[in-house]
Amino acid sequence: MHVDWSPNLYGWLKFTIIVLLVSAVGMITFLYDLRDLFTDHLTLIDITTSNTSNFPGLAHLKPYSQSCRCHSLFTIGACGMEEVASMRAKDARWVSATAELNRARFQQDILMMPQLQTISHYLPQLFKLNTTLAATINNSEATGNKHLSRAADSLPFVSCRVHMYTPSEIGKCTRKVLQDTGQPLRMAFVGDSRVRNTMEQIIRSTQQEIKYRLAGENNQQNMSVTFLNHKSKFNMPVIGDGIELRLHWSAYLELDRDPKKISQQGAKDLLEAWSNGTPGPDDGPIPDIAYITSGMWDSSMLPEDAAAESFIFTLEKMAPILKRLATRTLVLWHIHGPIKEWLATRDVPNGALDIMNRASWRWLADSNIWLWDSRTVLMLKQLSECRYLSQSTLKTQIPPEWGCFDFQHAGRDVEDAAANMLWNLVCNKVLQLPSEHCCS
Fold it and tell me: Higher-confidence residue: 3 or 427?
């Protein structure tokens, strides 16, 4: 190629313009690459500007909706994923998983569930096989470590302390809430069994301390699983000392309520009434906390592509309503975990989880809604232990409450840990726990 280096004004002008254009394109490309490189900074939820002026009930929950430390108990990396990575800065596997998780929430080429699975490995083992020599002689057994909890007194991705609540402390907290505000603590659970089981565990673990009864009845009721599985689907409030729990059963969130068709019932009209600040007599007051899930009815029975499509359809219809509701109350959105595929008698849509949960991040992360994925990590840890135990010769000894043979639900230990997170959210300030605790 021959280049004429003789002076030529037109040629130099043309050359200069080309250089400037190439430089401009390069700069634009660089800025886009820089944006992608720092995606975790750009996509962090802007907690400090949350609008909580309309929050009902518990005044002390208002600043917590703006506290990333409290938020981080529910959403991994709410204070920035750099903080989570720094907790184990010398552990390359940990640092990589936290960085990839943040990018996976918004980028399709990175999977989210493997990163959550890696983080779950750092939780303590709760279930184990007792294979010591003495146990071998006297028959091996599967045992649970009674000195540990899924929410031990700290979590590996949370920088603040997690208090382990006793029933007496919870009773003291709810009674003080009533004394201080004149109103009971109101928690609403909207969805299917994914949220119902958390409500069940709250009742199960505190019913000796908090005397629960059905609304409108004086006698304490048998708050058994049977009651919760049936009557509570009709939105019957469960009232205790300073607390009101209500399950709004919803199999298909985007539909309206229809108690005559439980398997087709939704909650769209209820959430609209709350979000508009106009609840009717059958809706109950706007709760202090609303734990909501789309449920698995519209996806767990479908192939992966259809499951993702159904979930996104629901989210598209419900996201505006959920965002409005989150300006009036604290909304916790359930991030789905996998179904136990080794128990399956049909195909399960586990491969669609990344698409579904990434859709939640894309549609809801720019609002006041808290996406609850720390619970998903607890479930993944339990699932990996159950998979191992189920493949062992001791599977017949696994207690049913561990949930290892439940096709699509976590065991009681995960629900107990989830309930404990809620108590930390509500009670740490009420009981004036030291400042190193989350939500204090």
Answer: 427
Fold of 78-430: Rossmann fold (3.40.50)
Cα 356 to Cα 373: distance, rounded to the nearest angstrom:
13
The two structure tokens encoding residue 268: 């769209």
The residues that bridge with 248 in the sheet, in sequence order, are: 190
Q: Write down the residue that tokens 């750099």 correspond to.
A: 82
Q: Evaluate whether 157 touches 76 at the Cβ level (below 8 Å).
A: yes
Tokens of 396: 């017949």
Write the pLDDT tens digit of every residue in 25-75: 444 333 333 333 333 333 333 333 344 445 555 665 665 556 899 999 999
Q: What is the pLDDT of residues 232-253, one digit of tens each?
A: 566 778 899 999 999 998 888 9
Helix/strand/coil for 213: strand
User: Which ranges of 218-328 would DSSP assign to H, the alpha helix?
Assistant: 225-230, 268-275, 304-325
Starting at the edge strand found earlier in the chain, the sheet holding 243-249 runs 213-214, 238-240, 243-249, 185-191, 289-292, 330-334, 370-372
What pTM value is reported for the model?
0.83
Q: Quote the CA–CA distance of 65 and 52 in Å, as a whole number.
A: 7
Domain boundaries, given as residue ranges, for the chain? 78-430
Binning the chain into helix, strand and coil, the percentages to the nearest 5 are 50, 10, 45
- For the record, the structure tokens of 196 come out as 């119902």
Structure tokens at 339: 């179904």
